[in-house]
Structures are given as structure tokens and as C-alpha cells.
Design goal:
Distance between the termini: 10 Å
Structural class: mainly alpha
Number of helices: 13
CATH class: Mainly Alpha
Largest sheet: none
Order of helices and strands: HHHHHHHHHHHHH
Shape: globular
Helix content: over 70%
Number of strands: 0
CATH architecture: Up-down Bundle
Number of domains: 1
Length: 309
Amino acid sequence: MVAALALLYKLLPLYVTVVLGWVAGRYLQVSGRHIAGMMLYIVTPSVVFSGVMAAPLPAEVILLPFLVLGLCSAIGLLHMKLARRWVTDESAAIIPLAVGTGNTGYFGIPVALLLFGQEGLALYVVCMLGTTLFENSVGFYLAARGRYGLKDALIRVARLPSVYAFLLAVLLNLSGASIPDVLVPLFDNLRGAYSVLGMMIIGMGILSFRGLAGNVRFTGLAFFGKFVSWPLVALTFWWLDAGLLGIYRPAVHQAIFLISITPIAANTVVIATLLDTAPRQAAGTALLSTLFALVFIPVMVALFMPGQG
């Protein structure tokens, strides 16, 4: 109980940041669309690059982002089929992003640091890169297909720099290269901007706090996928690998489990804003999930990772 309350206390600044984003959008007319472009094309690739460069990369660790990418894709595609039957408006295209990934960076990194410390954080970041790869490949493609044709959607995916940043960092890391000392403060500052701007953009998408749920079917399916399906998949993998496969150590299982219980990703709002596909619906549901996670995450950590925190 004490650990859960400590974690809850540590999360409060993230919610203050969301409120500041709402103030900026509501009263200062700050454009969430412009910030979304900056996040997707500049800040996120920088964080991906520095995270991979800082992590040790034995073969099994290099495969972790692709393992998480596969899990995200399977969950996203399954719920996309449900969305086509259950959600009747354009927001159905956003469902794979809403459920397949999570707010693993802006929200998850501070939580991982609290739970795992600096050493465990590097491993978490490597796992987290799988969700970033999903957002910038399969997830973006499925969302773009809701508004664009096949060719245009693929072109938009090919223009996203995060995948290239990941591959470049892997090559440089394996070759023994490192980020020059003079550039380390720059990447540290970009990591801070990543969390602050990412949470603020959720608030910017909310013009009014009334009717946050919007399309109740969308919100219900997004919550089911994010807070039921994803944790069940993560726990199943944990059980199979710990009991039968024996490939990864418990720290990896815990990192993937933490990814599974994070709220709906702020990048879902970023991409919905860029594609002009139900951005208010995405922002409202992401904010509701973030509020829900304030209680959900401490409870799940207490149940399945009682030694952490």
C-alpha cells in the first residue's frame, strides 16, 4: 500500500502537465498540430536514437523491440477487426494505435525509473522501442489507411524518421561508437521535452472537459484493449517464458508488463492530429485512460510486482 501511494504521488506531475497543455490550447491558442509534427519528426527520433545508443545490445536484447512490435501488431490488428464491426465512424482507424501501443515514453519512463532504477530503465527503454516502432510503422499505416489510399499511406510511413533512427543507432552501438560528450546534454534536454510536450499535447486536444468519452463505443473498446487485452498478453508471455522457454530474465518480463499497463499513448493523439482523424476523440480517450492509470498502475504493480517500488 505504501509503495502504491508513493508511485501515485510520483505520477502527479504528469497530470499537472496535461492541465498546463489544456490551458495553453484553451487560452493561449497554442497549435497542437504544429507541436505534433515536431514531436513525431524531431523529438521522438532523437529519444529513440539516444536510448538505443545507451543500451547494451547482446543478441537477445536486440530482438526485444521486435518482440514487442509483434505483440503490439497482433493486439492492434485483432482490435481493428472488432472496431470495424463495433465503431461506426472514422475513429475506428485509430483503435489499433490506441490499444496496440501505450504511453510508454512520456508516462512510462518516469514510472520505470521509479520501479527499476537507472540500470533497469535502459532495458525498459529497449523494450519501449518496440512500441515506438509499432507507432511509426504498422500503427501509423493502419491509421492512415482510414483516410488515405494504400500508396499514400505507405509513403507517409516511409517518411517517418524514428525507424531509421533506431536502425542507425543499432549499427553505431554495435560498432562501438558512442554519442560525443558535447552532444549528451542536448539529448538529455530532448528527453525532457519528450515527456513534457507529449503530455501537454493530450491537454491541448481537449477544448472542453465535458463529454470526454465522445463515442462511447470507441472509448469502451480502447479501454478493453489497453487495460484488459494487453496485460493478459503480457502476463501470458511472462508465464510461458518463465516456465517453459527460459529466454529472458525477470527484468524483461517486468518491463514488458509495465508497457502493457501504461495508458493510451499520447502519440495516438499526435498521429490522429497529423492525419486529422478524430483527434478530439483520441485526445479525450487518452486523457480518460491517463486518469484511470493513476489508480490502475499502482494496483497492478502491487499485485504482480510486489517487490518493486
